[in-house]
Design goal:
By secondary structure, the chain is mainly alpha-helical. The protein contains 16 helices and no strands.
């Protein structure tokens, strides 16, 4: 379906609008049309699936289990591993984040998923394996999962639930338990309300999705790879923090960034700096921040981004030392 969608977007931009494929505007517009439709399709599908899961999953029991049992941090590790198994970009992970919050799952656990999901996925790992070998692939995967696990735990200690947006607060106060008479209804009878809830979520974040993708499209079309390679090359101490700062306005998924990282490394950018850039693109993008504005206050977004930024910078320095 997405291959077909890519052909449609190229036809619309290059044939119908007459833009050149090798022009900055053409590349930006093609990216914008393709990713806007793709993200909305994913948002609707994921929101619908999560609605179907929530209608059957005993989230009240899961919430009670997590709140009642001391799991010694395993709940954060399990959420991070689940995030690594889901092939979603940062924007596509938000509906799952909303579903977890609505189900009453502790906020720190949902953060562990939200952090790891865009950083690590099976497609990116397969590409890493072919381009960089087993050692780098394993270190990257384990590091991404640990970032989600540790960051989620630290965020949970800060008691940040009051900093969720009013919209999410209202979702949180809604009862997660399905009434007994509704629980035994056939699935076909649940479809209208599941669809209505999914559409409500998509409609609530639509503006933020469009703004975020527009920013990413502008960066994609007008900022060349050579710009990053030129300023991230060498062993200067500021290369890793600069890589993270430059990555924030970008928008891409992990699989789409792996070939770019290969180009960086081939041009002499240290592997740790390159990986820090990649992790920041997929986990700290400005488009993600604009989308999260619907579910978090600016203060919470700042805390979330700040902690993940420090984690990624630390990993960048560690990778550079390890592979120097």
């Amino acid at each position: 379906m997405f291959v077909w969608l890519e052909h449609i977007s190229q036809w619309l931009v290059y044939d119908l609008l007459g833009l050149q494929a090798d022009s900055h505007l053409g590349a930006a517009m093609s990216f914008f049309f393709y990713d806007t439709v793709k993200i909305f399709i994913l948002l609707m599908l994921i929101s619908w699936v999560m609605g179907a899961v929530n209608s059957y999953l005993p989230v009240e029991r899961l919430r009670a289990f997590l709140n009642r049992h001391q799991l010694y941090g395993l709940e954060y590790l399990m959420a991070s591993i689940f995030g690594a198994l889901t092939p979603f970009c940062s924007c596509s992970s938000v509906p799952l984040f909303i579903g977890f919050v609505k189900g009453g799952i502790p906020l720190g656990v949902t953060f562990s998923f939200l952090i790891t999901s865009p950083l690590v996925n099976e497609v990116a790992l397969a590409m890493f394996l072919g381009m960089f070998g087993v050692k780098v692939t394993l270190i990257y995967a384990v590091s991404g999962i640990l970032v989600g696990t540790i960051s989620g735990r630290l965020l949970s200690l800060l008691r940040l639930e009051p900093l969720l947006s009013e919209w999410v607060q209202q979702l949180w106060t809604q009862p997660a338990r399905v009434e007994l008479e509704k629980a035994h209804r056939p699935f076909r009878e649940r479809i209208p309300e599941i669809t209505q809830e999914a559409w409500r979520i998509v409609r609530g974040v639509a503006l933020y999705v469009v703004i975020g993708i527009a920013i990413g499209a502008a960066m994609h079309g007008y900022v060349p790879e050579a710009f990053f390679a030129r300023y991230l090359n060498g062993d200067q101490w500021w290369a890793v923090p600069l890589a993270v700062v430059l990555a924030v306005p970008m928008y891409a998924n992990a699989a789409g960034m792996v070939p770019v990282i290969q180009v960086f490394v081939a041009k002499g950018v240290p592997l740790g700096t390159s990986l820090a850039f990649m992790m920041a693109v997929v986990g700290l993008s400005l488009p993600e921040a604009t989308l999260l504005k619907k579910v978090m206050t600016l203060k919470l977004i700042g805390i979330f981004f700040g902690l993940v930024t420090l984690s990624i910078i630390s990993l960048g320095f560690f990778f550079n030392l390890l592979f120097s």
